[in-house]
Amino acid sequence: MQFLLLNQCFYPDVVSTAQHLTDLAKALAERGHDVTVVTSDRGYDDPNARFPRHEVWNNITIHRIPSLALGKASRLRRALNFASFLAVCSLRLLTLRRFDVVVALTSPPLISFLATLFVALKGGRFVFWVMDLNPDEAIAAGWLRENSLTARVLKQMLSLSLKRSDRTIVLDRFMKERVLAKGIDPERVSIVAPWSHDDAVGFSAAGREEFRSVHRIENKFVVMYSGNHSPCHPLDTLLEAAQTFSANDNIVFYFVGGGSEQVKVKHFARDHHLNNIVCLPYQPLDKLSASLSAADLQVVVMGEEFVGIVHPCKIYNIMTVGVPTLYIGPSESHVVDLANETPTDQIMIANHGNVNAVVKLIRTAVEQISLTSARTHERFSKQALLPEMIELIEFNSQLKPKAPAPVLDHRSDGVSTVTR
Length: 420
Description:
By secondary structure, this protein is of the alpha/beta class. Helices cover 37% and strands 17% of the residues.
């Protein structure tokens, strides 16, 4: 079969959607499929990083297209960046042949709409892999007024993408509920959690020692937030907790990754004269085991309004590494689902704004919790979930394009991704 994959991020970029789409592309190519990717020629978090415009890598044909790189300092700049990518992507798609299956993710927002138009024009099946929901995210974040003309137009574009997709793949039961609430046929919506990179990520004693040695934190307790710094994952409560520990030389807070909110972390540390906060860029996949293993306590954050809209997939790599986790967020989320089936000392829960609770839990972690050996959660491994994804998007050659798909997803009831 011939597959076309659309997303702003792909190999060698290191953000999460790039890594997951790269896993899928490699697996499809290894199964003998013809795989083409249209993506950006710039790094997502570092637009100064440039990649070859055209490349064949692991039997995958990659077309990388140019776009504006105005930075993320304002919503207007981000919108112009996205718009320029979508415009060039539209022109590039016009030059491409028909594909059997087109898979679109969600970076930039609503690239799925281009996939919908491409399939309508040239034929084939369309798979919508929903990594986050927009404009729902923009509305929840306050970037768009819900009843504005722009929001209404974007809602219609999302609705068309969902209704025209032959298969929509979401990440958790909360996201599925949001999609079904938009009037989408439940037979076409499947849940596949974003797998851990367990073939490349695991607990590394040597990596932990090296990371802590390089950063001179061998004898310190390390609290780490690793991943995208976004308004969807508000860090205020964690930062205030870090301020509480400012006089404690034995506890340090590492913020690893990127995104528009990382600059706020740096400004908070500067404005409050905090030496216990350190910011680092995204770590490449071959260094991720070392950085994750270096922490004594990992932190996962979910904004109150973003359940079912975004999905902090960092939790799966953290669980694979086996580092205890502090979750700050609403009491109903996929992370809480995981906590309900995990040993109580592995995922601790606190609400946003409750700085005292976060401080208390960190102190508890310092006093009582030690690192485990890598705690394997096979249900969320790449070995388990990637074949499931492939089975869904290969379809069945006997089906007509708009016939209901066979029940291939055992998570169709919306709760079996994580069993309470």
